[in-house]
Queue: 3 jobs
Job 1
Amino acid sequence: MINTLLPTSTAGSLPKPSWLAEPETLWSPWKIQGDALTNAKEDALRITLQEQHRAGIDIVSDGEQTRQHFVTTFIEHLDGVDFEQRETVKIRDRYEASVPTVVGPVSRQKSVFVEDAKFLRSQTDQPIKWALPGAMTMVDTLSDKHYKSREKLAWEFAKILNEEAKELEAVGVDIIQFDEPAFNVFFEEVNEWGIACLERAIEGLKCETAVHICYGYGIKANTDWKKTLGSEWRQYEEIFPKIQQSNIDIVSLECHCSHVPIELIELIRGKKVMVGAIDVANNKIETPEEVAATLREALQYVDADKLYPCTNCGMTPLSREVARGKLHALRAGADIVRGELAAQ
Ligand SMILES: [Zn+2]
């Protein structure tokens, strides 16, 4: 399916046009409503796809133009969650947010993103990746008055995600990615039931599957948290051994400009790795040489045919110009290392 060496992709979101939603803002509400919104989202998707094509990105996505938030938009489509009944909780043990409440059994009456994915499929012949929230991260973004168990609620979400993933696969999605930033925080739970839920979510899928584990968008709550993590970020060390044993195909992680010791990638040897070679918490556009340097380092721990150059996380909070520059840098950096590998 993916024949290019070092196929490039992005972790997820890309900036939205200013006529669709307030730029450089997370959770930004739509500026258009009703049927016009459907058309506007499709137009935004066409634009983001063109930007990815122009930059030479190999595995393309919808840039999350179709959703307001990577977790909430999915949950909004489920039964059992009351969006009127809100509670303030601490998300990822880090920042407080007002979140909806689980008031009954959770279920999915109909597909959430399948029409959007179909549209994306109709617009490109390149491999496409679709992101879904991971079960643990979903649980961590809610107040639960029904199951009263994070594990039980996550398991129910995993079953729902599996239904959605199977429909996405059926309309031609090549890679389904689960976003699990919570995996970097709740290590014990990840090992006890988080990875089991991830495996439940991918059960029976024939397309490729990925898990994205990062240190978050470049927002203040995250950059403040990162300052408390010390000079070496060893979070991956706690969870990688079990992820290595799991049947997920691809692990998407943060590298460039982070304090993650790159040798931790050795712990997932055998997996395909989407190596974050673009910092999303910084407006400075990487040089192709900087990208190449990160990829070369990663090559010590990932076989070349399993290395997928990527961004650290989503780029929705960045300006379109900066995001565009970073996409081009990613591709140019990958080209340098491709040339070196070909010369060997
Ligand atoms: Zn991320």
Job 2
Amino acid sequence: MGEVKGDPRDDAMGEPRSGPDTASPLRVRIAPSGFEFTAEPGQSILEAALRAGIRLPSSCRNGTCRACLSRLVSGSIRYRIEWPGLSADEKEDGYLLPCVACPQSDLEIVAPGARRQD
Ligand code: FES
């Protein structure tokens, strides 16, 4: 009774956690506003911003409309979807879509439309 089986770091199904889910929250900075917040593992930049009370331009939230188009200044991301609505050239030039981009390190992006939520 009350016994805890397995490694306490394992999830509820007894499977060891792995990958980015075990990572610490990562810090995101938005330029030029200077807003800063943290993103939980697996959270998109847009979701983390909203949770912190910061509104970024967005519409579809699934990587197709490009309303959230921003530019990566530093850090790394991974996409939730295989084909976000960016060309190879745009990716190479540092553009990203925060609605489907999850931080893989502390990062800074340029998003001039960032605002505090009312
Ligand atoms: S909100 Fe549509 S691509 Fe990000």
Job 3
Amino acid sequence: MKDAERVGALTSGTARGTAPGACSFRIGRASDNDIVLADDTVSRHHAELRFLDDGRLLLCDSKSSQGTVLTQFDESREVDEAFVTPTDQVRFGDMTVTVGDMIEELRLKHPELRTAYEERAPTLRRCECGAVKREGEACPECG
Ligand SMILES: [Zn+2]
């Protein structure tokens, strides 16, 4: 289940939508989201994409009715929260987008994000074990 307190701790002391620093962006059907997905199967506030201080990207479901499904290496699973990379695919209701597409849309709306993100996370890769690691470094999960 979703551990809201743990997620809150990860982003404590930071302001939404500001960079540098960890920041989070809302995804959903309502027009006040940072990324608007206009489909009836998408919840009004469906999920959040968080840019952490260490450069990693955390995707968090916002108790959506249809759930958030992450596809990595051709395997799909419903997630409450998961680290993601730009090549991962995410399904919100019936809508499928890539993490990279969402980042690109956020960059258009928040030019400061381009600098902050590219400085901190230029080399994130998905390890064969499913964890996120930096290129050329040992995997934190499988070594
Ligand atoms: Zn690994």
